[in-house]
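Before surveying the methods themselves, it helps to consider a single example record, giving the amino acid sequence and backbone structure tokens:
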Amino acid sequence: MIKKALIILSFFLMITLSPTILAAAEKDYLTEQEVRSISFENLNTIYQDVKGSISHYTEHEFNLLVTQKIRDFLEIEQDTILPLGYELPGGLRITQAEVNLAKSNPGEFTIYGSTALAAINLSEAIYNSGLSQGNGDAFRHAYWNAILVQEFGAVTRGPAYGVERAEIWTTAHESESSGIDKEMDLYNNYVGREIGYFNYTQSRTHISNTLQTLVNQGTLVRIVNNRLVATDSTK
């Protein structure tokens, strides 16, 4: 009888404590204001600084390290707070879903910001037009997702983990989009993750060349006259 009572008590404690355990697992390192105040340029600087030492830290230690570096930047530069829907270079906006992810995953946030900036800069260097709903837009989303897979999976976690985290973050990015714009971006994001997965150990130059070929061949999609159509070789 006593044994049965102890089993019931243990089960009750497990149920009542589980929300606390889950809450602890989803610890916020950053405030919303901090997330909205740090620029992607500064996130890139932080990531390039810590990238080579990620394997030396646990996930929690890495998040603490990045959190302090973000706060150091904010203290020095006093960046302007980014409001909801703020338009970042290249048409990227930070959504509430992205903010929520960044608060509890500052380490991943630096990777996310760094790769977003790389995708913006490269697409603008390659494509003279079509950066909104066109070939350049399609390339940017696909390239971003491909290199996200590589960076999220880096060190020991591998391409499958990279795909999983890249999908979570970039789907959060599309959470406030709708209609064919959202369809376009989600599809091109998916193609990019596939390229990232199957070319996981390849260079960014190889990834870029592969995706440019796919754009030229019509594998990605763009919007023309409010309809989804295949990409082409127009730059």
